[in-house]
Structures are given as C-alpha cells and as structure tokens.
Amino acid sequence: MNDNSKKMEYGRQDEIEDLSLSPPTMGSMQIAGSNGFGHNIEFMSQAYLRNRSSEIDIEEEIPATSQDRPLPIFLKFADVEFKVKVRNSPSVNPVKSVVSKVAVQLNIEQDNYKQILKGITGSTGPGETLALMGPSGSGKTTLLKILGGRLHENVRGTVTYNDVSYNAALKRRIGFVTQDDVLFPQLSVEETLVFAAFLRLPSGMSRRQKYERVELIVKELGLERCRHTRIGGGFLKGISGGERKRTSIGHEILVDPSLLLLDEPTSGLDSTSANRILQILQGLAKVGRTVITTIHQPSSRMFHMFDKVLLISEGYPIYYGKASDSMEYFSSLRFVPELAMNPAEFLLDLATGQVNDISVPEELFESQETAEFEKYLQRKYKVELEPKEKEENHQALKVPERLQLAVQVKKDWTLSWSEQFTILFKRTFKERWRDYFDQLRLIQAFGVAVLLGLLWWKSSTATEAQLRDQIGLLFYICIFWTSSSIFGAVYVFPFEKIFLVKERKADMYRLSVYYVCSTLSDMVAHLLYPTFFMCILYFMAGFKRTVECFFLTLSAILLVAVTSQGAGELFGAAVMSIKRAGMIASLILMLFLLTGGYYVQHIPKFMQWLKYVSFMYYGFRLLVKVQYSGDQLYECESKSGCRRLQSSPSFDTVNLEGGLREVWILLTMAVAYRLCAYICLRRKINIYNL
C-alpha cells in the first residue's frame, strides 16, 4: 500500500473514531439541508401548538432544545449473491413430469434457481448518499432489501453494520421507503405523521415535543399546503405523487433512523419534485445518516448530488465508487461519449450495452454483441475496483467496539401495551369510520328491516303454519347477520396486509395490539347495525312484546354476529388473499347454512359432526329458545285442542328449555376463532416481504 492510500486510510479511521466519541447534536432538532434550509423549533408558530384540532391532547411542557444525532452506521457488503427459486409449470408430457420429479429428489436444483445478484461489493457510511443504479430488472431493489435486512433466504456473502451482522436490534434503526407509498389512504398527511410519532418516538418525549417533531418534519418536507388533505390512492382523491413520496420519507425520518433506504423515490415525479426529494435526502445524510437509494435515470444535476454510485448490470457490478469519478474511470477504460451526455444516461447505456454514441476500446469495436461489452466491464471491475474496495474499506478500516456494541442493543418498546392500544385504536377507528358509517350500509340495514317487517307483519304462532313462518324469519335473521359479519371481517387482513407488513418490519407496535384494536374497532359496526336493525323489525314482526325477550333476542343476535366476525377474521388471516378468503368464506357459510338446523333437522349420523362445528346451528337454537317456551300453547282453535309448542314438529330436535349451553359454546367459538386468527396472522406476516 503506498503512502497516499495509507494517509487516506488513517484519515478515514480518525473520522470513524470522532463519530463514535463525540456526541454532536442536531441543533434544536434541525435537519440541515444541502442548501442550508432548516427550521428551529424556538421560532415555530406557537399558535399551531395551542390550537390543534387533533384528538390527542397536548400537555403544556417545556420543549426539548436538542436531540442526539442518529447512531453512526458503517455499512459494508461483500460478494453478495441472491438466487430465487423458479417454479416450473407442470409438464403435459408424463415422461417429462417424472424426470422432473426424479431430478428434484436427487437434489439437481441448479436449473430451478435464477441468479439475481452475482457478487456485489461495496460500503458506505454516515454522511454519504449511495445510489444503486442500473436498468430495470438488474437487481437494485433486491440488493436494497438485503441491505435493509428484509431478505435472508438464499442470500450469500456478508453484510455488516458497524462490523456486526444483521440482528433484531437493527429493526428500529433502519428506515425503509418502498417504491409504492404504503400509507393509509383515509388519513390526512398530518394524521399519518402524528400517529407515527406517538407510536414510534421515545416515551421520554412529551406530547408537545412529539407534535413539535411532526411540525418540523412537515415544514422541512414542504407539506404545509397539504397537511390536512387525505393521502388518497386508488379511486380516492388525495395528495399528489410528490407529496405522497415526501410523506413516506417523513414517516421514516420521524424516528431518526441511522440507515435510510429508499426504493425509486423519484419514480413518477416531475424533475422539480424529484430534485427536491434528492435535496432532502442529501440534507438527511449530512446530519449523520447513511442513505442508500435506488434510482433509474436521474438528471445530470441529481447525479452529482450522490456521493457514491453502484452500477449494476444483470446482477453483476460494473462500477462502484464516487459519482464524480465515474466518467474518469470509464474514460480510462476507453469508453468515451462522442457527444455531450448526462453521466447517468452514459452509465445506463454501458450497463445495457447500448454504445451507439460511445467510443469503445479497439478490441471490442469489431464485436457488436452486448454480452461482450458487459463481460469486459465485469472483468475490469473485478480486477481494478473490487480489490481496492475490499482492501481500503473492508479489511483496513475497523469500526470502534463501542459502535459495534451499540447496534446490538435492542431498543425497548417506546410505549407500554396499553399506551400502544390507545393510540392504535384511535388510528384504526379514524381510518375505518367512513366504512363503518357508510350511508349504503345504513340504508341496507333499514331497508331489509322494513321489508322483513312488512312481509312478517304482526306474525303469530297460533297455528303450525304461522309458527313455521316465524321460525323461518328467525333463521333468515341469523343468516343475514352471519353473512354480513363474515364478509365484513374476512377482507380486513388481506386488504391491510401491505400496511401491516411494513409497520411490523419497522417494529412500530406489537402484533397483539394491532389485532385487538382491529377486532374491537370493527366490532363497533358489527354491534351497531344489528341493534338498529332489530329495533325496527322486532315490533313489526310480532315477536314477544316484553322487554326481557327483546333484549335476550338482541343479545343472541349480537353474539352470533361477534362469533361470525371471529370466523371471518380467521378465514382472512389463514390465506391473506382477497380472492381466496372470499371463496373460503362463501363455501363455509353455505355449509353452516345447510347444517344450521332449519333446512335439515335429521342429519345422517356420519354427517352430524358438521352441525357441531357450525356457529349458525348454535345461534339459531339460541334464538328459538329465547323466543319460545315449551309450555306455550298453540293450535287452540283446532279440533284436537291446544298443544304445547314443544310438541311441534319444528322442535323435534330442539329442547326449548335452557339456553346457557349455546351461549357458552358461542362465546368459546368467538374466542377460539380469534386466537386461531391471531396465530395465523403472526405466522403469515413473518414470511411476507415488501
């Protein structure tokens, strides 16, 4: 190693030591930008803090004046490889199918895997912005997920954070902004950031300080104009793409992550918005964060904002180093643009083998094959850049022990279980209340109740036929609220899967808190609408006019609805697919409907087990027992005289006395379904990646 390289190495080592020893501050929670922009909390508008419209009250406390920088993280990755298993479609030819199965049994799996990354090496540290560049499908996003600790299977090579391998303690030190902005569409920008602040910021910060932190982020990211606008998405109008991207970044930098990773943060944005995003990232890096972003084709001005560039071509690295040195490196290899060209465009042309306006080395001039250019660049990278990177930044530079220990210390939960529950329940209800109190749902409940009330107007149990009609109404009520509750709950987890995976990867809250908040919040609608429904129908249909019977009937229907909700949650959590969840719910609902005790009372012995697992069976029996008494008389005008209701053929298999057995079974089912749903949800969420 020559004297110059030694001096550079010692200088870098001293820089690492300084970062680990000195506790620099952010200067009154100020995020410094590349153009010097920043806002000091002491000069913030106090009117905003006093006159907030948020539901979370603010305590008047003295604001903090400073906050420590994020923990410095020096990221190193060497010889990173990744392969994905390719599922071959089943062959029509039976001989080929047998041969394929034999090959799998003999572990001949080379052809079943596709190599995505093929030996990527690099490093970056605090204060630096690393850009992962390359054409679509080159493996940029895959590498970003590996560096963020979101991909572990089928990964080879080493990835270290302060010379320590990935561990659970790093979850809350890494911010990950996905290409598709994963934000709740019904919440406003400010609500999104406020709830994130209360869930993720340390419990040592007062409420006022958390609001101040949100205000700072809103101002720094230029979100003042849209702070009260819904995020939107799909068919729901909301903020623009650039504003949504800035909100996603704000959501992650609220907690001062040491390592910030962004997947295509400028995709779909105009040049002005994209440039502003890059300026924000540059400012975030300058206060001590390590920033890594994938980017497809930045403008010339944006390209020069990056400190380092890693250029990938079909999974192979062909350049790693300073962005400002990239043109000089390729010129030394005799790849020179023949006309004025954006450096990023020039690099991408080389990565794709498009060298129409680029002069190339003489030995490659005659060969016009793209593969030859790529192999040449790959060989040069392996000979000239990779050994230098490994020697200077991987072998020579060692991170101080205190920083190595710091990244292994897992942060405690910022809030207790009950505190997380309070905040998350407010957010869940606020995000879903428009669905709960949808006008169509109200009209549906009112319309069906009135229609049934008119069809069964003042029904009675005077004759067997009239009794049969009223029992049919009870069974229909059971069917209506069972299906409504199941289909109201079965799509919840499949729809929110992407949000849940993202927030769980960041350790925002306990999964148990999310599940309890979700089921209790949804339960509001599952209890409110049946109550409204029965208040209209009960007295129109001529059921028993006693207060006790009304409330017992209502309680039985609510118990059926709550149990059905648990079943719907279980079906949704078990498959986490909108299409499959709906299909499974339809099939099981049909099965329970047939074995509910109305259509078929005398079920063959070998099929009787079905009715004992059907909550509709127990719910219908409970409704019948509440509404009728075995000693009640009917058919008094017949020739044979009055008869007891218990003697009716409709109650051959039902003993009208009691009812507590059905109550306990339904309560047990409601709890069991939810426990199984939680277990399925935990298992499914742990295997998903964004």
Explain briefly what this protein structure is.
This protein is of the alpha/beta class. It is 51% helix and 11% strand.
Write the layout of secondary structure elements.
Blueprint: H1 3-21, H2 46-50, E1 75-85, H3 94-105, E2 113-124, E3 129-133, H4 140-147, E4 155-161, E5 164-165, E6 174-177, H5 189-200, H6 207-220, H7 241-253, E7 259-263, H8 271-286, E8 290-295, H9 300-303, E9 308-313, E10 316-322, H10 326-332, E11 336-337, H11 343-352, E12 358-359, H12 362-365, H13 370-395, H14 401-406, H15 417-436, H16 439-455, H17 464-489, H18 492-505, H19 511-540, H20 547-575, H21 578-594, H22 609-612, H23 615-627, E13 633-634, E14 643-644, H24 660-687
Parallel strand pairs: 3-8, 3-9, 6-7, 7-8
Antiparallel strand pairs: 1-2, 1-4, 4-5, 9-10, 11-12, 13-14
How would you sum up this structure, described in words?
By secondary structure, the protein is α/β, with parallel strands linked by helices. Helices cover 51% and strands 11% of the residues. The chain has a six-stranded mixed sheet with strand order 6-7-8-3-9-10, sandwiched between helices. Strands 2-1-4-5 form a four-stranded antiparallel sheet, sandwiched between helices. A two-stranded antiparallel ribbon has the order 11-12. Helix 15 crosses helix 19 and helix 20 packs parallel to helix 24. The model is unreliable at 4-10 and 21-67 (pLDDT under 50).
